[in-house]
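Sample entry (171 residues):
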Amino acid sequence: MKKTPPDINLNKKSERREFLKTAWKILGLVAATELVFLTFNLLRPGKDQKKSKTAANLKIIGNVEDFLPGSVTPDRVNKVYMVRQKDGGFLALSLICSHLGCSVLWNEEKKQFICPCHSSAFDRLGNVINSPAPRALDYYPVTIEGGKVKIDTGQKIKRKKFDKNQVTYAI
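Predicted structure, serialized as tokens:
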């Protein structure tokens, strides 16, 4: 039986030890990188995804004739108020208050949308009349095809105030 000199055994042990130290350092670095990546992805805000106009997003609200000029019609299913202007234009307003997300109600006497939670009030165009709501009611793009009024529920648009370009007219 041949015995290896003690120097060779020490070299093999130290080589093994150095290899294991290096391997653990690499594994630790990989684990730390994964932890940083996971933390970053959990804490960053989600991407604002613009949904395309698909058949699933376009909802038929009714026929043009169903909405009298000067009327405000609620659609609780799609969470909108269809506002028909006196000149015939259409505006689809979200029925969700821009303050804390309560459902606003249309008050026909006052011609205002009223939020029952904190008494915010909005005019028939969705502009803020009474705070604490910080901005106007959101709106949805309206399209009119073949006498049908449609809204794109995938494109709820935040706004500061009413703009005449938000109104759609039947041709």
